[in-house]
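[step 3/7] fold_predict: job queued, chain A
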Amino acid sequence: MTSSTTEVSKKLTPTNGLLQYRPRVYISRQLPQRALDLLLGRCNVSFWDSPDPAPRTELLVNVPGCDVLVCMPSDKIDREVLNAAGKTLKIVATMSGDLAHIETAECSRRNIRVIPLAAAPIVEAITQMVVALFRLAASRWIGKTSCNMNTVLQAKDIIQALKADHIFCLELSNRTVGIFGLGSVGLSVGKAFKELGMTKILYTDVEPNADDVTINAEFVSRDELLTRSDVICVCWNMKVDGKSIMSFERDSFKRMKSSAILLDATKRFSADFTDMYEALRNGEIAAAGLDVREYDIIPNRHPLDGLDNCFFLPYRECYKWDGRRKLATDLVRSILISLQELEFERKQKSSIVSKPERIDHLLLEPVAT
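[step 4/7] structure written:
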């Protein structure tokens, strides 16, 4: 089925003569309906009607004249896109907490606001994703459990659902988890594994993290983490000043336990995937769970696709999660607040002191669950 750009608009009756202009929004991929409905209450919206990324040519064709661009982490928002959008562009909002794909300095120079996802919901969503990947990969360890795996993976809170699986949690009680990068994501993942019954948590980073006491984690060297861990979770893409300081390659896999599970929580996993394929195929490690396909880091039809112990979670799968609906809705509310602020600033500069129409009925309405 061929994807295309869909334009949706709603006719709005002006209130007190103030809403004569509806900002134009372009979205580079489908958003959950709830978020789209919120935008339509205030804006005219067009979007790439597909769960896959909009081709760059499609992005360049549709951004001219937009007030707001809602992009995805796979979209590179550079000077070419900003030039195509023109002087009307006021806001670039991204469904990501990482701004590496946006030329923020150029946006600042043009007085364009950049709105990322709030950090806390992202960390929670990533943690849930890691635990989901772990449950899939851990099927190599555990056969019979007290809860149906599909029921667990479809739960709103996967961590709580897994805690009810007593057989599974008992199996984890003597396991060790190793975390690469004990930042906010690493701490959240460590807390989740601790809740599931893992008693030993190791981590490695550029330097020890004083917050490690909150999860009773032990700072160790990279090699010690590789050799001692039953589960290894990469929560940092291992780059300093843009340069990779560590990658998983043949030597890394040979140091790991043959029963070890490797999990990615970075979306930009630094690894030699040919070496990973050999390690998984030859039983040097038990399983891997990866969240990297969205960035085409692993080519389509790569041999990893054919392994039954390598699990992928592309970003598009998150469309099925209530968590992504909430993230999208929160982002839209931030956009609407910024539009209201910009409108008020414009009227102040024009010496119009009357306040713009309030949109609290949109901003404060609870998200449907």
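[step 5/7] annotate
The CA atoms of residues 133 and 289 lie 5 Å apart.
Residues 315-320, 358-369 have pLDDT under 50 and may be disordered.
exit 0
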